[in-house]
Amino acid sequence: MQSQDTGRQSTPDPGPSVTPAEALAAGRTALGIELGSTRIKACLIGEDHAVLASGGSDWENQFVDRMWTYALEDVWSGLQAAVAELLDDAERRHGVRPTTVGSMGISAMMHGYLAFDAEGELLVPFRTWRNTTTETAATELTELFGHNVPLRWSVAHLYQAVLDGEEHVPAVDFLTTLAGYVHWRLTGRRVLGVGDASGMFPVDAATRDYDARMLSAFDERAGGHPTAPSRPLGELLPQVLVAGEDAGSLTEEGAALLDPSGSLQAGIAVCPPEGDAGTGMVATGAVAPRTGNVSAGTSIFAMVVLERPLQAVHPELDIVTTPAGDLVAMVHCNNGASELGAWADMFREFAAALGHPAEPADVYRALLGAALDGEADGGGLLAYNYLSGEPITGLAEGRPMVVRTPGSRPSLANFARTQVYGVFGTLSLGMRVLADEGVSVDEMFAHGGLFRTAGVAQRLLAAAIEAPVAVGHTAAEGGAWGIAVLAAYQRRGGDASLADYLAGDVFAQSEADVVEPDQGDVAGYRAWLEQYSAGLAIQRAAAEAVR
């Protein structure tokens, strides 16, 4: 592992420096809020993009009536708690409680289905990206468009509701994502950043807007059903904006929703809302061709910016865009690090039962540290992290499990290594499809809490995707920092491309720890992945047998 300068041009003259307290008092800041799968984070940065204050709130999805969902009441209570903690943190650290910020932005989990009627009332509970009940719709739309439509995309959820004859569909007046919903309530604007929009409906890279031919094809196909939408789909979707465009400002109602204490004032400029994939790209500086990033959380996904369109349609690959509208191949896996977290919790309970209570971070460090001592092929152990279905491997439902043969070599080190391998298993299958398309990547940037323990998950990911993996100092800040940077970019006025802004202003002096693939790890992972792929039949049998 080596620490190296990213070498992305020199930093422009920042002008007269100010103290953090002065920046907070004058509103020379940018606020980013991201609603992740298990945590809502708020991040406040200064003009040098350094974090001045942060806050957060935990939340969790529920499985209700066989649908993964979040209650909208929890959206607002979680946002308010995260913002309150951030304001407290700013006052504690710098002696100033902010009343305004220079700009702000909202990011959230992409995809899913939030449908509202003409009065702004939610028609059915929020259907998140995690649901895999849309296979019929996604398959039909993929054939109709000649463009892969994954199960979790908003249009797949809408069309499945049409096919299922759901009575609410004709009443749909507005369809959006979680980030689009929050932005709408804060600003009154029904808009969406192009990266998030490209996970609702296919986007034309030339126009940086929804593909007009595909919109017409959808309207014609859906119109033949009794429960078709009452208006063309293009009128129901949010307006598409690219990074840097005007997306409105915080209203009085929005300010009260965000901060009931009244500290934050209305009028703050708000950048286009984006999905977690787009903010992950920004947080790692990976928005130019031949760059990419991996984000690991409840789900795990890789984003690779394309030099050219792909030659064929692949069900394993989403075609989405950067926040600036450039084409990206996305390998999205529904299941990420949650199962590893469940095992870490169990080991923490075990340590407490022995009379040695440990902090969660210490347990993670011990587990991940042990993984480095494991055999390269995991000693014959297999780990499946499938808490939910996994479209890339064709599984409608998941059953987490650890599998071994009588001849395998169980040990803490091998167990820990295979659990980390399990986080990356499905991802690497999708990355192989990209490689077969001739897509090259010079370096992958990784971010998310899994990479806080230096050199472990990063090293094993490099083996899994057979490419160098870089982790920067903002790896754990993730999307909340990324959307704050997008808010700062909008405030800058768009006088440079997003790629140039990131290279010249944000990451010019940054350093990253870069790990090259270890050939022993690569050979061991390949052997492990062969057994992992063969063992997917066990997952199918378990989903049928264990209810």
TrEMBL record:
Statement: the UniProt record of this protein carries the keyword Transmembrane helix: no
Protein EC: 2.7.1.17
Record domain Carbohydrate kinase FGGY N-terminal: where: 30-257
Keywords: Carbohydrate metabolism, Kinase, Transferase, Xylose metabolism
Gene Ontology MF annotations: D-xylulokinase activity
InterPro entries: ATPase_NBD, FGGY_C, FGGY_Carb_Kinase, FGGY_N
Keyword Transferase attached: yes
Family, as annotated: Belongs to the FGGY kinase family.
Name the record gives this protein: Xylulokinase
